[in-house]
């Protein structure tokens, strides 16, 4: 995945092509914000300092920015920097330094649950993906198995890469949407094996969820296809980088390549859909998706724990 061009000083700032918005003033620079809400907050800060600015879409068409004159640029950066110091508090979504990526620390909850489940895994055989049992109608195994791991090494690897990929996907799409999409992608990888594998088998699906998170990141630049040649090139580069990482991490012959591939494809589809959701309704969609994810966990694990 390739982030958009980096800026030289925080908060994100870059030069834009000269844009004349009035006969008297030339708004030829911009300060990049991570969201529409952040742009609105910063616009109010600058207004309180007598700095004229216009809130607009970022020049690449992906994100928000404040446009202002070159003469006000440095003073605006200082004002915003001071505002951020005075209002510093912990947030689940944290922008990564010198990039446009955002990391969501809510992924820690997923990691903790995976560790807890691993501690009781010897008693959770009904949660494994047993193709014979699934053919008998035990459909929930496609979902419960995305929380299970083969051994301590498998758990550690999924926590490392899952903590990275899923945390970034949560920052991009919202925690609830990313978690639900990852679970569905992992289940898709499991179910794909029913059609592509000869004979019966027993498998796990945790890595499918991790590959689903990688697929979401590979698809996160989907809207840029409509932004001209530059946008299409960035979207293609992002997708190609994701595919490259999948080949490196998900095609080990000793692993479940089919489940990995199904998870990655599921993540691509979910990520492409999620990237098209308007920013103004993204929090609502993410919260609704989070509730669905919790409900799905509760319903499917009921079959494992109570029967």
Quick take:
The chain is built from 11 helices and 8 strands. By secondary structure, the chain is an alpha+beta fold. Residues 1-10 and 12-24 have low confidence and may be disordered.
Features:
307 residues, alpha+beta, 2 domains, two-stranded antiparallel sheet
List the helices and strands and how they pair.
Blueprint: E1 13-15, E2 29-33, H1 36-48, E3 54-57, E4 64-68, H2 70-86, E5 93-95, E6 102-104, H3 107-119, E7 129-130, H4 131-135, H5 141-144, H6 152-173, H7 175-196, E8 202-203, H8 206-218, H9 228-250, H10 257-275, H11 282-305
Antiparallel strand pairs: 1-2, 2-4, 3-4, 5-6, 7-8
Helix pairs in contact: 3-6, 6-7, 6-8, 7-8, 7-10, 7-11, 8-9, 8-10
Characterise the protein shown here.
The protein is α+β, with helices and mostly antiparallel strands and 307 residues long. It folds into two domains: 13-89, Alpha-Beta Plaits; 102-305, Rhomboid-like (Rhomboid-like fold, Up-down Bundle), CATH 1.20.1540.10. The protein is 57% helix and 9% strand. The strands form three sheets. It has a four-stranded antiparallel beta sheet with strand order 1-2-4-3. A two-stranded antiparallel sheet has the order 5-6. α6 packs across α7 (175-196) and α6 (152-173) packs parallel to α8 (206-218). The longest helix is centred in the last third of the chain and has 24 residues, at 282-305.
